[in-house]
Amino acid sequence: MAAASQRAPTLTLILLPSASRGAGLTRRALVAAQVALAFVLLIGGGLLFASFRHLLAVDTGFNPSRVLTGTVNLPWVGDGDHASRNEIVDRALEHVRRLPGVAAAGATDAIPFGSGAGSRPILPEAYAPTPGESVISPNTVRITLGYFEAGCAIEAGSLLYDE
After folding, report:
1. What pTM did the predictor assign?
2. Distance (Å, rounded) from C-alpha 33 to C-alpha 11?
3. Coil vs helix vs strand at 143
4. By C-alpha distance, which of 94, 99, 101, 113 is closest to 152?
5. Which of 9, 69, 134, 161 is the one with CA 20 to 30 A from 54?
6. Is 67 within a domain?
């Protein structure tokens, strides 16, 4: 009896099934779905990266080296204010063109691949559209003389000249 009392206590484990067979299949299906989704996201990320690399290699149509861009916000009084705004821009461009090292200077209201392009409907003079009629509203970009000489190549046509 003395030997039995000195023996270490034993631990008995009773293993019970933790979940039914259907729950195990569901768990495996969810893990498989997670792995599949991870692969889809990984492949999608790789394709996005490859597309971005190709996008960087596309010829933009202009050479941005040695081109300086800036933004000037002129006050806007109303529709009849175009002449004074144009005069301010023309005087500023004349000053910029006289700076040493400046080969050409021009201005626009929307730089390439930037924001600022507006849209205006194209309508013949004295035409009144009927209610609900759709009109063509292409993007419009205003430029000054010297804009194309300052770095944007022309594919076809000719440059604008002050006449």
Report:
1. 0.49
2. 39
3. strand
4. 113
5. 69
6. yes
